[in-house]
Amino acid sequence: MNKTIIVSNRLPLQIKLEDNKLEVTPSVGGLATGLKSVHQDGKSLWIGWSGLTEEELTPELSKEVKALVKKEKCDTVTLSQHDLDNFYYGFSNRTLWPLFHYFMEYTEFEETFWASYKTVNQKFADAVLEHVEDGDTIWVHDYQLLLLPKLIKDKKPNTTIGFFLHIPYPSYEIFRTFPWREQLLHGMLGADLIGFHTYDYERHFLSSVKRILRLDVNFNEITYHDRIVKVDSFPMGIDYDKFYNSALKQKNEEKSELQKRLDDHIQSSTEARMILSIDRMDYTKGIPNRIRAFEYFLNKYPEFKEKVRLIMLAVPSRSNVPQYQRLKRETDELVGRINGNFATVSWTPIWYFYRSMPFGNLIDLYTSSHVAMITPVRDGMNLVAKEYVATRTEQDGVLMLSEMAGASKEMNEAILINPNNFEQIADTLKYALEMPLEEQQSRMKILQKRLRRYTVEKWAEEFMKSLHATKNLGEVIVANRLNQTIQKQMISGFNAAERRLFLLDYDGTLTSFKDNPKDASPDQNLYKLLDELQSDPRNHVVIISGRDKETFTEWFTHKPYTLITDHGVWLKEPNKDWVALERLKNDWMENIRPILETFVDRTPGTFIEAKKYSLAWHYRKADPELAQTRTLEIETVLTSLTSNNDLSVLKGNKVIEIKSSSVNKGRASSRLLNGTNYDFMFCIGDDWTDEYMFKELPESAYTVKVGFQKTSAKYYIKNTDEVRDILNEFIHKS
Ligand code: GDG
User: What ranges do the domains of the chain cover?
Assistant: First the structure.
């Protein structure tokens, strides 16, 4: 039976070592809850770091940890203190975390951190490879393990790999500054499904893939070598019932000390109000901004003094990273200053806790607060916002949420604010504090409805469903890989045949693309290969191309091959003159060319190639996103202009070509077949214009597409290198 392997930096377990004794308790975090059904049901394993370094564990203790976590269906990756300093505190938290949260000024591009990141990702890969078998499903989590999908896929291609990023994915303009950007993208593309919290992160990622790796993206599918990688958004939810039910339960239980103190404030006056803020102490959470905005509010609306109190829980986090230490100092000072300035004998405006609290206290805070003020400057999702909503059993309370949190995309009924706009925050806070109960409830009702439905379990379920569905993506391609077995069969057909036809496209097939088509002239190896192929009198080699006859005259007329140019307008047989296969006009060009020129003007990196019977607009060097928009525009304009005459608009490989409709490679190849009886036919090409040949040739022909795209060819191969390998096979196996 196939299994599911979950991989995250930390295991969903708390492992403590005290007086040489180990204690393992399951952790209750959101991710652990969400993945419970994935992890507990069926055959599954969770791989991660235990939380204890190599230095902290003797070899015996290390074994003991492995044995203990095994009972929880887990296995550990061993990390040293050096790994922790460079991979975790270094590259993960001083490079990726700030960069992905748009804090470029905090981002450190350190070669040693990067080296350690690669080493540790390899350690995780080794741990996975120890367990993984063909057919298994693997779900990798978060920014600490961006290289892992590729490391696994390279070694175990017959596995299904999912990757989910819990933090934002930054815009291309930010990501492009990263020195190892290609490696990271390739690392992630080892996955079959890549998930983000929001559509924005998804489109930023796709934009990086298009612009940096120049891969083809079709909606949310990336063509990556011979695989399709799917990208989608899955907004993570919470364990709704746990929060809702705990809130209900705590109402009827004996009050905690914290609850009693909270009640003291609330009961001090009918106008007393509590404002809540809970986060990890992290610069992305906008804690100083929030405090300053609160100060601004107290100054702007002094009538709220002595009535409102901001309860701020900041949970210690990454406290050995310098920026976090500075943030802590800044927060302490700000709270001190504001409390010092505004406090009266009976009132302190901010209650500040720098610690983590037990779950019960967290619920007390949520249920006692009239307003939750959640104002990160950048946040992947933000679960606190969702948890606050889930605990409001009376459907009262107001959620103020930053537009910069992923959660804002699905929580429209919250009051959304820009965390940098103090004026707006102050006014919104006043509005929230004075909001009539009816409005509070109507907003809360809708928020709760969605959260109750799209829980963290549902999130995990949806992700796994999509991940399993990627197994069928390969079937979108109608062609089969030209594998060893088919090659063998093809070669034996070739050997048995007396009259063999080779229809070979040129650009993207016999040679790879160059930025300028003029630079793609044949190399000596190609001539040699074609000469050898043609030297057998049973072989008829035809190069069939959209190139113009002048270019092919220069490149090939001294060679004994048959040439067809201009998509099928001209034919040249060895030792004969060029003959026109079609009678064509080209007077339409003077009308179309100025239109194409306007596109060249507006699209840097594009140019027009004027052939005798066609015009081609090349966009290989243009920005891929701009080019995508422009191709749609240009197709629409040209199609409307050419609909009444005899022209057609062809979409090739990074080129749009306008030519007479009556001409195509399919028609030209049929003419070649007329009156001849080939007993072996091999036809190969890479783009749309070659599809005409694939369709036109008889069923017995071996039609081969270069590249992994939809095609009418029977088989496909990966690239031009493989084209030459196959042609060599024909030469040497005959
Ligand atoms: C990352 C992304 C994304 C907080 N204080 C206490 C406590 N908590 C719990 C909350 C909540 C969790 O911690 C915080 O989750 P967030 O989502 O708000 O933030 P990050 O830790 O930054 O998480 C974030 C998330 O990954 C998931 O993908 O949403 O954007 O940055 O569950 O309840 N729990 C207890 N005591 C505390 O004092 N018991």
Answer: 4-233, 240-444, 480-582+663-733, 589-660
Catalytic residue status for 19: no
Q: Where do the DSSP E strands lie in 576-613?
A: 578-580, 607-610
* CATH match of 4-233 with 3.40.50.2000: yes
Task: For residue 379, give the ligand 1 atom closest to its CA.
Answer: 30
| Residue 284 Cα to ligand 1 middle (Å) | 13
Cβ–Cβ contacts within 10 Å for residue 524, how many? 7
Residue 728 reports pLDDT greater than 90: yes
Residues 6+ apart with CB under 8 A from 156: 129, 132, 134, 136
Cβ of 278 below 6 Å from ligand 1: yes
Predicted TM-score (pTM) of the model is 0.85
For 438-462, the DSSP string reads: HHHHHHHHHHHHHHHHS-HHHHHHH
Question: Between vectors from CA 400 to CA 309 and to CA 300, what angle results, nearest 5°?
Answer: 55
In the chain, the largest separation of any two C-alpha atoms, in whole Å, equals: 107
Query: pLDDT digits over 336-390, tens only?
Result: 999 999 999 999 999 999 999 999 999 999 999 999 999 999 999 999 999 999 9
CATH code: domain 480-582+663-733 is: 3.40.50.1000
pLDDT of 631-645, one tens digit each?
A: 888 888 887 776 656
Ligand 1 centroid, distance to 279 Cα (angstroms)? 7
Of 286, 281, 355, 278, nearest in space to 320 by CA:
281
Q: Is 480-582+663-733 the same fold as 4-233? A: yes
105 — pLDDT class (breaks 50, 70, 90): very high
**Three-class DSSP category at 426:** helix
Q: Which residues contact 478 (CB under 8 A, 6 or more apart)?
A: 710, 711, 712
Q: Which atom of ligand 1 is nearest to the CA of 405?
A: 30
Kindly report the protein residue whose alpha carbon is nearest to atom 27 of ligand 1: 166
Sheet of strand 227-233, all strands in order from the earlier edge strand to the far edge: 74-77, 44-49, 4-10, 137-141, 160-164, 193-196, 227-233, 221-224, 216-218
- What interhelical angle do 624-642 and 199-212 show, nearest 10? 90
**Whether the CB of 236 sits within 6 Å of ligand 1:** yes
Per the structure block, which two tokens stand in for 398?
Answer: 């107001």
- What does DSSP assign to residue 349? S
Q: If we measure between CA atoms, which residue out of 133, 142, 182 comes closest to residue 162?
A: 142
- Residues 429 and 424: their CA atoms lie apart, in Å, by 8
Task: Determine contact, residues 84/78, Cβ cutoff 8 Å.
Answer: no
**Distance (Å) of CA 40 to CA 10, 32, 160, 479, 698:** 17, 10, 19, 39, 54
Q: How many residues does the chain have?
A: 734
589-660 maps to which CATH number? 3.30.70.1020
Q: How confident is the model at residue 476 (pLDDT cuts 50, 70, 90)?
A: very low
Contact 364, 337 (CB under 8 A): no
Copy the structure tokens of residue 650.
């062809």
Q: Which of 715, 697, 702 is nearest to 479 (CA)?
A: 715
Q: Which of 505, 686, 687, 690 is catalytic?
A: 505
CATH architecture of structural domain 240-444: 3-Layer(aba) Sandwich (3.40)
Residue 466: burial class (beta carbons within 10 Å; 0-12, 13-18, 19+): middle
Comparing C-alpha atoms, which of 517, 522, 687 is closest to residue 608? 517
